[in-house]
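P.,

For your records, the input lines for the assembly:
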Amino acid sequence: MAKDNRKTEPNKKPKFSAYWIYAVIIIGFLVLNFMGGSGIGSAPNTSPSEFQDFLSNGEVEKIVIINRRKAKVFLTGEAKALEKHKKSRGKSILPVSPNDPDYQFEFGDLQNFENKIATIKKERGLDTQVNYDTENNIWGEIFITLLPFALIIGVWIFIMRRMSGGAGGGAGGQIFNIGKSKAKLFDQNTDVKVSFENVAGLEGAKEEVQEIVDFLKNPEKYTSLGGKIPKGALLVGPPGTGKTLLAKAVAGEAKVPFFSLSGSDFVEMFVGVGASRVRDLFKQAKEKSPAIIFIDEIDAIGRARGKSNFSGSNDERENTLNQLLTEMDGFGTNTNVIVIAATNRADVLDKALMRAGRFDRQIYVDLPDIRERKAIFEVHLKPLKKVENELDTDFLAKQTPGFSGADIANVCNEAALIAARKGNKAVGKQDFLDAVDRIVGGLEKKNKIITPQEKRAIAFHEAGHATVSWMLEHAAPLVKVTIVPRGQSLGAAWYLPEERLIVRPNQMLDEMCAALGGRAAEKVIFDEISTGALSDLEKVTKQARAMVTIYGLNDKVGNLTYYDSSGQSEYNFTKPYSEQTSELIDKEISNIVETQYQRAIDLLEKHKDKLTELAEVLLEKEVIFKDNLEKIFGERPFGKKEEEIIVEPS
Ligand code: ADP
Ligand code: ZN
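Structure tokens returned:
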């Protein structure tokens, strides 16, 4: 809780509200406006013609002309005593001193006014004094002079607050905290209790981090033999695979405080802030050692240095990274602070980070395979209220190829929400299937306006995908086809991709052929193609390019790859190959795609009747499953892998 104190202390001071400043400024404005520079204790107003009467009557002792537009009138002693003047003075709200004028008024043109006075004086033989004076509105002047400064200071304060506030949680006086680390601390006092039990699968990774737990729990065991305790471990893997969870579990198992922050938290507009945040973070962690510092998305600061020379802001990032390296080198083996960092792009990280004594351990956290998915489902199903005997985790794991741990957690939550929306008392199988569909494809949009022709085109397009993938040995087996629009797409086909580690050219080509089956069907049936195949084309083009330029699977280009795993060429504009090769690559990519398109067309021409039949069924039912296809095409001739496919007619 010590750290919490640090955070809350500034809040205890009475908060000075900026609104007061605004209020004072506005009131000041209004007051000055109403006063109109006439000074305090202003005399009653009169009109020029009335004044002329007073003057003619000889009641005026002195006139003072102010700023060439206003006249102050001082009456003679006798005149002051007159009833009419007493009355008008009595109207004045403010107390009047004998030195104040008795009347005031504004005249139009000075020349005219002077002439009038001179004429009257001459006619009546008066010797009334006419004086001239300038009056400054001191407060108004000060206000006007200070206004720009006040504005600039106000804007500056506002910006500072916004910059250091934001994610920081809105404590007051943030200007002075800008160099402080923004790490979130979990320790014995916070109830975040994560143990290895909460992390399903990831056996290898767990084993490796188990070692870290041991180091933290009894360091003597290792140091007594002369060993050095590692300072850092790098978790590498795609988002949502449980890297944060794993790091938290390490802290939970070792029962040590856990500082969690993201690499981007270090980055700020100001020079030197990142470095000072790093310093502060390590200082705090050392005070609480043994402790774990977890830096998510370390690539935000850990990118290889000096790679791009375009923006100056990089210097700041480099400083931050340098400070991080210095801190990691700086603390001795006995400080018991271990830094765990996570990234999904280990290839772009600065090599200096990976050197011995820094993040010398790299732990790979991959997308879960079918067994691991089952285990993750088991973890996340536990808190749900389920329909008895309906949920089979094997089945669920099979339905979710390519899902990350976070996706699975999301499916479980979504299923519960769907069940609740239906008004069910428990979560059932169908809720899970709906949740999976929704996460894969987005929300169903049943009320999207689609003309009958469009619907027909979509049905044939999807039927084309289904037919081609059915006919090809290596294409992913189909699970379900729908023409109900979902998210961005107008129709969709669900496949169950085989999870394989190496892919052969045949498999890639078959998949591309199936992906082009949609457009091919449009061509075969309507002799017309449409924009509906955009995402198919995108996928196919990328795949073809990868075959040629990355995997070296093209005969003409040969066994070359232009892939750079170090990420060094990221900012390069130059291609790593010559003009001729560039032309060759383009030609080969186009060649691959066109060949597969033609293959899909040939296949569909041959099975036009079945394609049509399938499309009609699809138009009628909107959603069809594998057994509908079997009715039309007969048993799929290839492989045993279909045994894995689960068909769920609804
Ligand atoms: P990452 O840090 O790799 O992006 P997280 O650790 O933040 O991913 O994972 C997000 C959520 O996904 C976790 O809070 C957890 O609910 C779930 N999750 C991910 N992987 C697993 C796993 N192996 N076991 C259990 N839950 C997991
Ligand atoms: Zn398509």
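Two observations worth noting. The first strand starts at residue 60 and ends at 66. The pocket of zinc ion (ligand 2) is lined by residues 461, 465, 518, 533, 536 (CB under 6 Å).

Regards
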